[in-house]
Design brief:
The complex is a heterodimer of chains A (255) and B (265).
Chain A lengths: L8 E12 L3 E12 L3 E5 L6 H8 L7 E6 L2 E3 L5 H9 L1 E4 L11 H6 L19 H13 L15 H13 L5 E5 L7 H18 L2 E5 L3 H7 L2 E6 L2 E7 L5 H8 L2
Parallel strand pairs in A: 3-8, 3-9, 6-7, 7-8
Antiparallel strand pairs in A: 1-2, 1-4, 4-5, 9-10
Helix pairs in contact in A: 4-5, 5-6
Chain B lengths: L15 H21 L3 H18 L6 H36 L10 H13 L2 H12 L3 H25 L3 H10 L3 H35 L7 H10 L3 H29 L1
The chains are: A alpha/beta (255), B mainly alpha (265).
């Protein structure tokens, strides 16, 4: 089964345990993997450790035990600073709050996505950025249908448009993996759905692996290939989106 | 039926300790007024003296040669204020960043920069002027140095506060992307902190004009030097003209910075 061929895995998690102090174990021996180009939804009730798991994968939070392998970088507890840099250069992040710099133009905010690359000191504004970066930013903005708004201030955009700009900021660095923590949670249902569909289409078309968390079951099933459910710090189920039943979901959130 | 609770007393009971504390404060204030405050007889004697002084000040000297001399001094005063404030504001940027808690690239050592800024602020500008007159000699350069130090003491503190209270989410987003501290500063913090910082800078400019006027009293250049000379030589008509000119300058400066401030809100 190609399912289990580790060469194909962009993320591989083995026995990941994360506890605060002795008593509070948030994640307890998580085993999971994500294949290249796959779109995976991570679900679970509040406090089930979804965000913590995302942060452990990108090395924002050290974990207590186990091993994580992300895009060829294997680490325990926390990645070395060189590994962290390699991982981040190939990863795009989308946050629940769009986290744009409010008083800057949309274009500048998207150019920010190039920060961390070589010559990054020029990336703080589109005025100073190299032409190549500006071109990349324009391309990314075109992909999320924001070409009309490039010079508007970020805080003049609607919530959905801001989140699209944030997606463009993640796309501009041509990532292999995009990690999104509740990308639609702060949006109204229509904007949320629009953002999720742009998002998922772009990942599919560009062969980007997508790992996102969501509270919205409709989004989860519609925009992912596979669902990993966390409950009480362990993987409750891990199966393709087609085979997830209403009962499965009910048990994750209530039972 | 439950009984309604008794009425609370109108005033909190004063504990013996706070009664003694209040009494002590009152005593200290009254004794101080008695020792250094003006007495009624002194005030009564002072009024005719003040009248006499005003009488000797009138009319202000409008001699053209004198006016042109003052004009040059005014120009020098403005130059001291502008140069000092500009250099001070620019230097305050990195210092304020280093002093900003939680943002500073030196981590916990930000405390030292805060303390440094406080030190610059607590020493009064006239004392700095005296120090610089001794070190670089009489004249405008000492005045400019004083304004620089004074501006850093003022702007450094408020820049640090503006940086500390700037929005955290975009900063975290940029760090997650892999931006270094300088990129986060220029890309996310400064745009967010710009309005309060511009505000502070304009206040600093206003403050610089006001203090550059008096720096001359200790020999650090500018119009203050003329004012001191006029008083020393009992040329009260000259002094009144200088005071009028100073008044106009400060007023104009406040008006201009107010206008600019409202534009940057």
């Amino acid at each position: 089964m190609s399912h289990n061929n580790p060469d194909n895995h962009i993320v591989q998690i083995q026995g990941l345990t994360k506890s605060y102090g002795n008593a509070n174990t948030v994640l307890n021996g998580i085993n999971a993997h994500i294949k290249k180009g796959e779109r995976v939804a991570l679900i679970g009730s509040n406090g089930s450790g979804k965000s913590t798991l995302l942060k452990c994968i990108i090395g924002l939070h050290p974990f207590s035990n186990g091993e994580v392998k992300v895009m060829g970088e294997t680490f325990n507890k926390t990645p070395s600073s060189k590994q962290r840099k390699n991982i981040r250069l190939k990863t795009g992040f989308i946050f629940q709050q769009h986290c744009l710099v409010r008083r800057r133009s949309v274009l500048s905010n998207v150019v920010h996505g190039m920060l961390g690359n070589k010559g990054s000191w020029r990336g703080f504004s589109h005025h100073t950025a190299p032409n190549e970066w500006r071109t990349n930013a324009m391309t990314a903005l075109h992909k999320v249908n924001l070409s009309e708004k490039i010079l508007n201030r970020a805080d003049s955009l609607s919530g959905g448009q801001q989140q699209r700009a944030a997606i463009a900021r993640a796309l501009v660095r041509d990532p292999s993996l995009i990690i999104a923590d509740e990308p639609a949670a702060s949006l109204d249902p229509v904007a949320g759905k629009e953002v999720m569909s742009i998002f998922s289409e772009l990942c599919k078309d560009n062969g980007i692996t997508l790992l996102f968390t969501s509270h919205d079951m409709e989004h989860t099933l519609e925009f992912s290939d596979r669902v990993i459910a966390l409950k009480n710090g362990v993987v409750h189920f891990d199966k393709s989106s087609d085979s997830v039943s209403d009962k499965d979901l009910e048990i994750v959130f209530n039972g | 039926m439950d009984k309604i609770q008794a009425l609370p007393s109108r005033y909190p009971r004063l504990s013996p300790l706070s009664f003694v504390a209040w009494l002590t404060v009152a005593a200290v204030v009254i004794v101080s007024i008695g020792q250094v405050g003006p007495s009624f007889s002194q005030l009564a004697d002072g009024v005719p003296g003040m009248m006499k002084l005003i009488d000797r000040m009138m009319p202000p000297n409008t001699d053209s040669e004198f006016l042109s001399r003052i004009g040059l001094r005014i120009l020098e005063t403005m130059q001291i204020a502008l140069a000092g404030a500009a250099i001070g504001i620019v230097l305050s940027l990195p210092i304020g960043w280093l002093a900003a808690k939680g943002v500073s690239p030196v981590g916990r050592f930000s405390y030292f920069f805060k303390a440094f800024i406080s030190f610059l602020r607590t020493v009064p500008d006239l004392v700095w002027a005296l120090l610089f007159v001794v070190t670089v000699g009489l004249g405008a350069v000492a005045g400019t140095l004083t304004i620089i130090v004074d501006t850093i003491g003022f702007c450094g503190r408020f820049f640090a506060e503006a940086i500390e209270s700037s929005e955290k989410d975009p900063q975290e987003a940029l760090s997650a992307i892999g931006a270094n501290k300088v990129s986060v500063l220029v890309g996310a913090i400064l745009p967010d902190a710009a309005p309060p910082m511009i505000n502070t800078s304009l206040f600093a400019l206003e403050k610089a004009v006001r203090s550059s006027v008096v720096l001359g009293l200790v020999g650090a250049g500018g119009i203050g030097q003329e004012l001191k000379a006029a008083f020393d030589l009992f040329q009260y008509a000259n002094a009144s003209m200088i005071i009028i000119v100073i008044f106009i300058i400060v007023l104009v400066m406040e008006y201009l910075t107010d206008q600019l401030r409202s534009r940057f809100q």
